[in-house]
Amino acid sequence: MIPFKVKDVMVPLSEYATVSEGATLFEAVMALERAQEEFDHTKYRHRAILVLNNKQQVIGKISQVDTLRALESKDQNFEDVKQMGKFGFSSKFVRDLYKQRRMAGASLNDLCTSAARVKVEDCMQTFVEGEYIDQDAGLDTAIHHLVLENLFSLLVTDREKDIVGILRLSDVFAAVFHAMKACEIKLS
Amino acid sequence: MKSLENLLERIIQKVNINLRELNFDVTPLVKNLIPLKQMGKFYALCGVTPHHPLNFNFRRSSLAGSYFLGKCRTTNSLLYKTDIRGDELKKKGDIFKYKEMEIRVTENEGIDIRNSFLIKTLVHCYSHDPETLEKFFISNTVSTHYANIHGSPMDGCFLGPYATVDLTTTNDCVIGAYAYVQAGEIGHLEIETGTVWVRSPGLFNFLYRYPKSRLSDYIHFSAGASPKGMLIDSVDERKEDFQHVFNVVHLDHSVRIPGTTSVDRFAVIKPETHIGENVLVAQRAYLQNAYLGKGANAQENCYIINSRLEGFNVTAHGAKIIEAGLGLNVFVGFNSFLRGRPGAKLSIGKGCIIMPHTIIDIRSPLSIPEGYLVWGLVTNEAELETNSIPLAALSRITDSLIKGPMSFEGSGDAFVKAFQDRIHHILEANGAFFNGKNNRGHAQKNQHISFNAIQPYPDGDLEGLYPTISILP
After folding, report:
1. pLDDT digit string (tens) for A15-64?
2. Which residues of B touch A87 (CB under 8 A)?
3. Which residues lie closer than 8 Å to B188 by C-beta, 6 or more apart?
4. Of A185, B133, B365, B438, which one's alpha carbon is 20 to 30 angstroms from that of B127?
5. pTM attached to this predicted model
6. Cα separation, A93 vs B407, whole angstroms
């Protein structure tokens, strides 16, 4: 039994990188940089940005993968390559084809420039039911959620169902790691 | 009419349940595609020959203008001007080879159509699924104009116009307009319009996707309207010739037909046409000023106009050849559309393979050298260069090949051999190699067919629906 509640381990919303709806991906990345500078450096660094609406409610999240995905060309040629997997082509073939199309397409600099102008709501992920957890839930419940849904973080809610923080896989792992160490020390 | 309306609702619901995972609703595509009043207007035909098991069973179905041959059963289904050609079904005692296994067929195979709506569709060949050797089933499926279901048992599918599913067991899939699939077994996939996909797992994989904006000139299909485009226009322009053929009781074709050749009673033959020995001309084929050399064939819905086929040519179901000259042993795949023009002849060299669903549409003369594989959309020399390869060069590919929008992975040699073996098998089955004694095929066996015409209720709640009918020896 790990003697923590979710609220003991979560990152409060106030410490998280956030941007408002309508911001660009570049502004989101800058917000992340600021949050990383201000955050306690002994902990794991922030890796995602939350998107807030005009009522300061969380409506989405931009992860590192979402940021990189925004760099992907929306050209039909690339969309076609993404579909190749369902036709049974090998991963190596798909990678080579992608590389070939990329060589013929825009440079990374061009892609970065155009991606920076993308609106955050066009590249953010929205949340589904299994991604929320109550702040008073036990950490064992949170672990079950993370493993079952294969998630990297959960949105923590208060009694009014407002989002008050983020429970990150890395923080849960650290808590479990410390609990294991404590058990081992007692046994020896 | 009420029963027909209920039947259509039931079929739509069955198909939608199967396609719910793909979030695909056939209702707007199918609802008014064929006015149900039409279903009562046409008789259906059952072919009787001494060469094919006679076993027809129709229950709670409408069969307007459809054609049946071999062992066929329909239940709770609507068939509109559809051909169910069971002349290649397996017979009791046949041995079916699957990988290392040899499986004995325990009873005559039958085509079993349930809860389905097939519009101007061709069903042919036999079940290639080792799990259902005796039953070639088509259930909970809607297929639209000029689709081909070829040796492909299927359940819960939608086929757009001119779609072909070939030798592939298909479950809960949407096959877009003018898409061709030959992949062994597929499930829960949406195949986009204009995709040409040929896969033999572990051996090769070929994929071509038409540029949609250009394909739509040839075929496009959207909710609330019939399919449109040049492919449809080319058929509609000649519709009246077929009406004549179906309206006349006794019809003699005006050309000389050799004794080893079969020209179906429901084909259109217009002057000046020459038909050689061992030729097969199937029902709903259209020949005008055409030369068909020895062992050539024209399958259902093929149009050969102002063209010369030197011999041993396969013109697969739905292919159109206009203003063209084809050398010996040229294969033209399903639903291909090859159109030269007066003064801009298309010439295809000996032994070429024109992939299924290829469009060659030219305004200047174009010659394809001997022994080439051609695919996709070709309107000029430059596009021919991108969308073709010598068969010998493809045979040397051992890893992968990317040419324009075409992707190939695997053994080119296996791909070429698979095609060539299949072409040889088709010619053999069609009787192209008949020597007066051996190698008898469809061209010889299908010469004498009697047709029984059956008709629906003419009025009332059951209008358009056929009574339960069993026809046995």
Report:
1. 888 999 999 988 888 888 888 777 665 566 777 889 999 888 889 988 88
2. 197, 199, 205, 207
3. B21, B22, B171, B172, B173
4. B438
5. 0.83
6. 9
